[in-house]
Specification:
The chain contains 2 helices and 3 strands; from the N terminus they run αβββα. The chain is mainly alpha-helical.
């Protein structure tokens, strides 16, 4: 009887030891599985965070590149506009200086000629004015000087032919020209009005 009890105790002890070892192995495997899962999950989370950080970094980099490009473009356009204005102003100054230089050269080269032409023109005008006043007294003048009145502008003379003798034959508008001078625009208009009989009489009483 005692032997059986001893044997049962030994069997129970052996079974308890085996169960203990099984529990230890189970715990070890569970721990290994947990550690493996934990490691894999950590790597997954780390990859996810790295991908998110990379995407955010790329997005920020793109925005930064766009901002840099925009500011660079604005600065270039502003510089280009200032440079164009500067060059335009310089070209205007150069052109003005060249024009002034050419004008001075032209004046220096032509001053004598201009003065001479002015003198000749003045002489011609004076001769013309003198001639206009003295024409009625020249031998080849066809009318009686007493019938002649000096106007000066736009026509030199008006002749009331025969009026001094009380027998008016006609009224003449006379323009005196010397040398190669020709009628002015206003003088041609007066001439044409006379030729077209666009001459009227107006009597004003006060």
């Amino acid at each position: 009887m005692e032997l059986i009890v001893v044997i049962l105790v030994i069997v129970i002890a052996i079974l308890g030891y085996q169960l203990y070892r099984v529990n230890i192995r189970v715990e070890q495997r569970v721990k290994e599985k947990y550690d493996s899962w934990k490691s894999k999950d950590y790597e997954y989370i780390k990859r996810e965070q790295r991908d998110i950080a990379q995407r955010e970094a790329n997005s920020r980099l793109n925005r930064l590149n766009e901002e840099v490009n925009r500011k660079a473009r604005e600065q270039y356009e502003n510089w280009q506009q200032r440079e164009i204005e500067r060059i335009t102003l310089e070209q205007k100054k150069i052109a003005q200086q060249e024009a002034e230089l050419l004008l001075r050269q032209w004046k220096e080269e032509n001053t004598k000629q201009i003065r001479q032409e002015a003198i000749e023109k003045s002489k011609s005008v004076i001769r013309g004015q003198v001639t206009e006043h003295f024409v009625p007294y020249l031998p080849d003048f066809s009318f009686n000087p007493k019938d002649t009145r000096f106007l000066g502008s736009p026509i030199d003379l008006i002749v009331f032919d025969g009026l001094d003798h009380g027998n008016l034959k006609g009224i003449w508008l006379v323009e005196v020209k010397t040398g190669s001078s020709s009628l002015s625009k206003k003088q041609r208009q007066v001439r044409d009005a006379v030729r077209d009989l666009r001459v009227k009489w107006l009597e004003i009483k006060r």
